Amino acid sequence: MTATPRIVIVGGGFAGLWATRALAREAVGITLIDRANHHLFQPLLYQVATAGLSAPDIAAPLRHILRDQRNVRVLLGEVPGVDLAARTVRLADGTTLPYDQLLVASGATHAYFGHDHWAAHAPGLKTLDDALLIRRRVLLAFERAEAAADEAGREAWLHFAVVGGGPTGVELAGTLAEIARHTLRQEFRRIDPRRARVRLIEAGPAPLASFPPALQAKTRRQLERLGVDVVCGAPVADITAEGYRLGETFVPCRTVLWAAGVAASPLGRLLAAQSGVECDRAGRVKVRPDLSLPGHPEVFVAGDLAAVTQPDGRPVPGVAPAAKQMGRHVAAAMRARLRGAASAPFVYRDYGNLATIGRMAAVVDLRGLQFSGLPAWWFWLAAHVFFLIGFRNRLAVLMNWAWAYWTYQRHARIVIGGRAGAPPEEDQASSRSGAR
């Protein structure tokens, strides 16, 4: 009797989950490993960070999503190592899992360009823990401004800086401006939240570098209309607990958020070291056209961990649609291998870019069809609700957004964990280990 083929998938994000589901009808034994018990819809993570949505609105337990797929076992665990020669995956608790085929899709983390000490002062946004930490810092900044003893202290607490002008940075900056100017008005007695200063800092010449120049200009205008100070061509030189430095100028600011850099999971460099394959500057593995690891056709790399070049020479972007397509492609390649057939090269289908800036403000680029403002915002909303997993998630998000649209209120403005007077660094440590 032939043994059931063993497939191990590391990472329950878009690439890993879509590959798992695409293998639902195959006679294989799949082990899906993730260090979180949930699948996260990352495009809406900033909504949790800015108190527009709660964590369950954009996340669902992996076991629940895969409850009807009988060929899958879900494991909660961290994967610090893979032995390509022995064809085993090692978990942090010492357990080893053998595989016949392997998909590594462990995602990405923050990159501070050699300044890792900035992380304590400028948290990034990749996980629910990150989002809850940012939400706590933002809401407590207004509380501490209210309690500040002098004007300089109030101004430092009411200054919010977002470093990085990509979609996440633009979304965070626009939403922070709306919170200050609409959500919190009339709720404080010693401060006027509308005086809060929100600054978006982009090292490049314009925000949303992957968008056409016309939409970049519209993005800047819409941000400025919301009250965001957009600073381009000026990389941050330093970040401390008291503020940040642009060139020679130090700016007092107690809330700095990081949206500027991404680095692949450490597993990428580990795979490269064992196989002799190169990584790009972000630590992504340079894979073969079918997404397999050179020299190891039984190993695939996908999502933010894979460096893939399109026929026109451009890299496949690290976005959710690309990760989903990679996941489905890897599943097809695995099926082909099981049948002794050759696998096809991966072809990325670019359906366009979209980013929201604030209430009734967004930009959309659909293969040359460009529009912005209210129509783009409605399109962005419909697309994100459609791609959420689960009816409950879609319904909850629609209800919360409808309420926020008419009232400007954000229902998730609850600060939990830590001490009321704790410094930001202690807030970060508390968030990493505390409640949700």
Describe what you observe in this structure.
This protein folds into 2 domains: 6-35 and 77-110 and 263-338, 3-Layer(bba) Sandwich (FAD/NAD(P)-binding domain), CATH 3.50.50; 116-259 and 353-433, FAD/NAD(P)-binding domain. The strands form 8 sheets. Strands 5-2-1-9-21-20 form a 6-stranded mixed sheet, with helices on both faces. α1 runs parallel beside α10 and α5 runs antiparallel to α6. The N and C termini lie far apart (48 Å). It has helices at residues 14-22, 45-49, 55-58, 62-65, 128-147, 151-157, 167-183, 213-226, 267-275, 320-338, 374-387, 391-407, 424-433, and strands spanning 6-10, 29-34, 38-40, 59-61, 72-76, 81-83, 88-90, 96-98, 101-104, 108-110, 159-163, 197-202, 228-232, 236-239, 243-246, 249-252, 255-258, 262-264, 285-286, 292-293, 296-301, 306-307, 353-358, 361-366, 369-372. The protein is of the alpha/beta class.
Question: Structural class of the secondary structure composition?
Answer: alpha/beta
Count of individual helical segments? 13
Strand content: 15-25%
CATH class identity of the largest domain = Alpha Beta
The proportion of residues forming helix, as a percent range, comes to 25-40%
How is the CATH topology of the largest domain named? FAD/NAD(P)-binding domain
* CA-based shape: globular
Determine the mean pLDDT.
90
The name of the CATH architecture of the largest domain is 3-Layer(bba) Sandwich
Intertermini distance? 48 Å
Uncertain runs are: 429-436
Report the count of strand segments.
25
Overall domain count: 2
Order of strands, main sheet, comes to 5-2-1-9-21-20
